[in-house]
Amino acid sequence: MLSPIDLLDVAEAAAQRAGHYLRALGDPPAPADWTVKGERDFVTHVDRESERLITEVLLPATPGSRILGEELSPTGAMDGLVWVVDPLDGTTNFLHRFPVWAVSIGAALDGELLAGVVLDVPRGRLFRASKGGGAWEDGRRLSVSTVRDPSQALIGTGFPFKELDRIGEYQRQFAAVAAATSGIRRPGAAALDLADVAAGRFDGFWELMLSPWDMAAGILMIREAGGVVTDLAGRAVNAEHTGLVAGNPAMHEWLLGVVATPA
């Protein structure tokens, strides 16, 4: 079994391979080539090819491991060594040339997150984290913000665009957070949002529902940077389908109190 640092190096090699492919594409696919996976949720051959390129690096380097990936292998148990892969987080941004999208790869052993990489392809930022080894951005060690007063806080979020029946619930949360903070941002790529919580750019983050590949690497980064990540009932989470509240310890506690749902 490889160490967390070794797993991290494998994940980075896979992410960089996908990033090279994505950078070399030039223009994104035309709208006629987009496939609708669900409401307002698009996929193209680019997403699938990126995941294939990632898989060709990860599996040979870790025999017996499996891929839980958004496009080619979105189901499966979390026992053993599992690579949790989002080959293109922020596909809608990518398709519209809005430069906020990334490759995200996490490694989990029996559900415990051990390593994670988020590659911000358009801006060339590389985020890395390993269990016990800290979180890093391009060689700089990350730490969550020290903001404790909500009125000074900048909060990240994601809209429930796949679950419009929850819009009312989200709007109530949004109004409460907006009234108490200095601002809310929704760039549209959760992996990067979570990395920016780890980097202290966002003081907190919440979203009603995310998938394992959206969060696997980012959760580990935030925890290794001194932050807290739970679901909306306050339960500690790993890579799963769930809502998420994250931030530095003080802001997580406050934000959870604002958006919490019953357990």
Q: Layout of helices and strands, plus pairs?
A:
Blueprint: H1 4-23, E1 35-38, E2 41-43, H2 45-61, E3 66-69, E4 81-89, H3 91-95, E5 102-109, E6 112-120, E7 125-130, E8 134-137, E9 140-141, E10 154-157, H4 167-180, E11 183-185, H5 190-198, E12 204-210, H6 212-224, E13 228-230, E14 242-247, H7 249-259
Parallel strand pairs: 3-4, 10-11, 10-12
Antiparallel strand pairs: 1-2, 4-5, 5-6, 6-7, 7-8, 8-9, 12-14, 13-14
Helix pairs in contact: 1-2, 5-6
Task: Write structural notes for this entry.
This protein folds into two domains: 4-141, Fructose-1,6-Bisphosphatase, Chain A, domain 1 (2-Layer Sandwich), CATH 3.30.540; 150-259, 3-Layer(aba) Sandwich (D-Maltodextrin-Binding Protein, domain 2). By secondary structure, the chain is of the alpha+beta class. The chain has helices at residues 4-23, 45-61, 91-95, 167-180, 190-198, 212-224, 249-259; strands at 35-38, 41-43, 66-69, 81-89, 102-109, 112-120, 125-130, 134-137, 140-141, 154-157, 183-185, 204-210, 228-230, 242-247. It contains seven helices and 14 strands. Strands 3-4-5-6-7-8-9 form a seven-stranded mixed beta sheet, sandwiched between helices. A five-stranded mixed beta sheet has the order 11-10-12-14-13, sandwiched between helices. A hairpin with a 4-residue loop joins strand 6 and strand 7. Helix 1 (4-23) runs antiparallel to helix 2 and helix 5 (190-198) packs parallel to helix 6. The longest helix has 20 residues, at 4-23. It starts with a helix and ends with a helix. The radius of gyration is 17 Å and the shape is globular.
